[in-house]
Design goal:
- With 429 residues, the chain is of the alpha/beta class.
- It folds into 2 domains: 313 residues, Adenylosuccinate Synthetase, subunit A, domain 3 (Adenylosuccinate Synthetase, Chain A, domain 3), CATH 3.90.170.10; 97 residues, Adenylosuccinate Synthetase, subunit A, domain 2, CATH 1.10.300.
- The chain is built from 12 helices and 19 strands.
- The strands form 5 sheets. It has a 9-stranded mixed sheet, sandwiched between helices. Strands 13, 15, 16 and 17 form a 4-stranded mixed sheet that branches. A two-stranded antiparallel sheet has the order 3-4.
- β3 and β4 form a beta hairpin.
- The model has no long low-confidence stretch (mean pLDDT 97).
- The structure holds guanosine-5'-diphosphate, 6-O-phosphoryl inosine monophosphate and magnesium ion.
- Magnesium ion (MG) binds next to loops.
- Magnesium ion binds next to loops.
């Protein structure tokens, strides 16, 4: 396979199985890169029955000798970062080389406190249902130019000076606006200095590294977190996350030039899920939703919350495929649909009595959209050991073809189970 730069993104509301797809592609990848988001992500990899959930580290960490990069666009919670490394080390699985950008912003304890306080302030009916990982407040500080970056943790004097100024402002906000306790400088500074020391071996010029890797014809994979419909610009605002989760975020979040990207891989789950608040036209609060949650194990990898489930929303998927310019689709969790007599797919919406196939990013409009379904026949054969497309039951093959036709992109990999081996490769890697 030609060496190349791939961007992999989620096409729905997250948890499509991006971690697994990155992992199955891993043997042919040289450099794995996270470019946005932070520890709000939960990317599950299962190898030989053993489960690992990555929050901050790229999902390629299990591959010996490979380079894993945390780009400048990521917001890093140092404690979580160090914890994940330690967990891998304890299992003897810290096999990759890991480099983190000095320009990545740091999620500080006050960001997490603010995240929760702001959610409480929004209250019922307005809350977003965040992961509570401090992501929004950290990105706010980044754009307000009052954030701390990884480089700031490396110089004790500078850190003290900056933190003194920052805490003066934060403490006013925490106490006067949210009735929270003020934070003492030392309580924040002492651990931050320790984080800085622990991070030193990992900090490096990631932009330079990536440009060199591309020059040397390496296969670079940019691993998106969250997903297109949670994108700060193109998602269902305000029920989104605070970063550019679509493929475009991969460029600003790493320094990889737009012109260098060869493929955009859209990861699509065979049905729909969403965690947190916000419109979801195909949400099923009855039997089908329950079936999908149970069969698919749809509980948050980061927060443990039950995921909202429903039929595949093709209007939304088509929007994502187009927005990201996806060349190929990685279809996941096809096995979860096994046993259903019929499978429905939302191909259009009823919007105030008119049929539309247009996905409108506005939450106000999407709230009013009612799904219009087409019904396909289901299959009952166990597909979890299928290794080729031809060995899938014909009705499962037809479901895949249907998705390809309506999404306008070929399905190049199919997930038939959570394990690395339970994958049908149709030329993705
Ligand atoms: P991510 O955030 O996109 O990486 O996805 P998550 O890891 O949060 O959620 C996907 C869940 O589905 C995880 O528990 C995976 O182990 C599991 N999974 C991934 N692909 C498949 C598949 O093809 N079949 C089944 N049954 N489970 C899968
Ligand atoms: P992965 O990478 C699913 C959702 C939260 C909430 C909204 C904003 O595993 O697919 P935030 O904490 O980011 O400010 O929360 O976004 N959310 C996710 N949903 N998968 C994720 O990540 C998510 N990361 C954030 O539930 O609705
Ligand atoms: Mg997840």
């Amino acid at each position: 396979m030609k060496n190349r730069v791939d961007v992999l993104i989620g096409a729905q509301w997250g948890d499509e199985g991006k971690g697994k797809v990155v992992d199955v592609m891993g043997a042919n990848v040289d450099v794995f890169v996270r470019y946005q988001g932070g520890a709000n992500a939960g990317h599950t990899v299962i190898v030989g029955g053993e489960k690992i959930v990555f929050h901050l580290l790229p999902s390629g960490m299990l591959y010996p000798g490979k380079l894993c990069v945390i780009g400048n666009g990521v917001v890093v919670e140092p404690e979580q970062f160090l914890k994940e490394i330690e967990e891998l080390r304890e299992r003897g699985q810290d096999r990759a080389r890991l480099v983190i950008s000095p320009s990545a912003h740091v999620v500080m304890p006050y960001h997490k406190i603010l995240d929760k306080a702001q959610e409480a302030f929004r209250g019922k009916g307005h809350m977003i249902g965040t992961t509570g990982r401090g992501i929004g407040p950290c990105y706010v500080d980044k754009y307000a130019r009052s954030g701390l970056r990884v480089e700031d943790l490396l110089d004790g004097d500078r850190l003290r000076e900056k933190l003194t100024m920052i805490l003066e402002e934060k403490n006013r906000i925490l106490t006067k606006l949210y009735n929270e306790k003020p934070l003492a400088l030392d309580e924040i500074l002492a651990p931050a200095l320790e984080w800085g020391k622990a991070l030193v071996p990992y900090v490096g010029d990631t932009v330079e590294l990536l440009h060199e890797a591309i020059k040397d014809d390496k296969h670079v994979l940019l691993e998106g977190a969250q997903a297109t419909l949670l994108d700060i610009d193109h998602g269902t605002y305000p029920y989104v996350t605070s970063s550019s989760t679509s493929a475009a975020g991969g460029f600003t979040g790493t320094g990889v030039p737009v012109s260098r990207v060869d493929r955009v891989i859209a990861v699509v789950k065979a049905y729909a899920t969403r965690v947190g608040e916000g419109p979801m036209p195909t949400e099923d609060k009855g039997e089908i939703g329950e079936f999908l949650r149970k069969q698919g194990g749809e509980f948050g990898a980061t927060t443990g919350r039950p995921r909202r489930c429903g039929w595949l929303d093709m209007v939304a998927v088509r929007y994502s495929v187009r927005l990201n310019g996806s060349d190929v689709i990685a279809l996941t969790k096809l096995d979860v649909l096994t046993g259903l007599d019929e499978i429905k797919v939302c191909t259009a919406y009823d919007l105030n009595g008119a049929k539309t196939t247009h996905f409108n990013g506005s939450s106000y409009v999407l709230e009013e959209c009612r799904p219009i379904y087409e019904t396909l026949p289901g299959w009952s054969e166990d597909i979890s050991n299928c290794t080729t497309f031809e060995s899938l039951p014909e009705k499962a093959q037809n479901y895949v073809r249907y998705i390809e036709k309506h999404a306008g992109a070929p399905v190049k990999v199919i997930g038939v189970g959570a394990d690395r081996n339970q994958t049908i490769n149709r030329g993705l890697y």
